[in-house]
Amino acid sequence: MLTVALSKGRICDEATPLLARAGIVLGEDPAGSRRLCIATSLEDVRILVLRAQDVPTFVEHGAADLGITGKDVLLEHCGAGLYEPLDLGIARCRLVLAAVADAKPARPRPRVATKYVETTRRFFSGKGIQAEIIRLYGSMEIAPAAGLADCIVDLVETGATLAANGLVVREEIAAISARLIVNKAAMKLSHRRVSSLVERIGRAAAGEEGGCT
Ligand code: PRT
Ligand code: MG
Q1: Closest residue by Cα to residue 73 from 14, 64, 60
Q2: Ligand 1: does its nearest atom lie under 6 Å from the Cβ of 91?
Q3: Ligand 2 centre and the CA of 127: distance in Å?
Q4: Torsion angle (degrees, nearest 10) of CA 34, 60, 91, 30
Q5: Which strands form 66-70's sheet, in the order they lie side by side?
Q6: What CA–CA distance (Å, rounded) separates 176 from 95?
Q7: Residue 211: pLDDT over 60
Q8: Structural domains of the chain sorted by starting position, each given as residue range(s) with its CATH number in brackets
Q9: Max Cα distance, the chain (Å)
Q10: Model confidence at 157: pLDDT above 80
Q11: CA atoms within 13 A on the CB side of 206
């Protein structure tokens, strides 16, 4: 049995049709089910529906052989036991530094609100700046107006949420999309099955039909 950890929410919504094109049809719609382990049309492939941040943890520890989650989550996870063979090209957005449009010049130690604490720390230390990072779990866009922080590091897609909160992009930190990840030991021990699954998902991501290997 191969277990695929799938990030719930918008990545699941976009990955489900992609997996179907690869010939991996989910037995139930995760959005309409309370079941967190879902059988598929391939009798040796099952899906675990998880919080995005938990996907790399399951794959790294071998509780799942493969996983699908956002590059933002992978940058923040910084684990070692993972391969990242495919960019699935779905759930695209950008990780950016954003601030109030007419903000005063940044102070020497800017206060930055984000849920991407590690990525933000690396970004600022790469510039030789020691930022004060304030961890939030959501609604980062309100932090500057509320006086909690000078700027935020968050995902932006259309920019509508930033604009609605009086913020503008100051700098792009990374281009984000959903990635397929693989447990390193599984890649070695179940090489034929894992690489055949990676191949068919890769063909589907490239827009080709999956076929039945
Ligand atoms: O996990 P959590 O519940 O905190 O996040 P969520 O419910 O916002 O998103 P979820 O679980 O459905 O999916 C999160 C994953 O989707 C991320 O890890 C990314 O890899 C990916 N993704 C792609 C996005 C977006 N696009 C996106 N636009 N995740 C979040 N957003 C947010 C963004 O932060 C902003 O607040 O959507 C909001 C709207 O963006 P605009 O610019 O279109 O207004
Ligand atoms: Mg969510």
Answers
A1: 60
A2: yes
A3: 31
A4: -10
A5: 37-39, 45-50, 2-7, 66-70, 178-183, 82-87
A6: 7
A7: no
A8: 2-91+177-205 (3.40.190.10), 93-175 (3.40.190.10)
A9: 59
A10: yes
A11: 9
Query: Quick check: 69 and 168 in contact, CB under 8 A?
Result: no
Query: Quick one: pLDDT at residue 209?
Result: 59
Task: Spell out the residues 6+ positions from residue 86 whose beta carbon is closer than 8 angstroms to its own.
Answer: 179, 180, 198, 201, 202, 205
Question: Angle, to 10 degrees, between the axis of helix 191-205 and the axis of helix 10-21?
Answer: 100
Q: Residue 33: is its pLDDT beyond 90?
A: no
**Distance from Cα 196 to the centre of ligand 1, integer Å:** 30
Is the Cβ atom of 176 under 6 angstroms away from ligand 1? yes
| Closest Cα to atom 39 of ligand 1 | 161
Q: Is the whole-model pTM more than 0.90?
A: yes
Report DSSP letters for 52-93, one per residue.
Answer: GGGHHHHHHTTSSSEEEEEHHHHHHH--SSEEEEEE---S-E
Candidate of 7, 10, 140 to mutate for ligand 1, largest count of ligand atoms within 8 Å of Cβ: 10
Which region holds residue 159: left if phi is over 0, alpha if psi is between -120 and 50, else beta? left
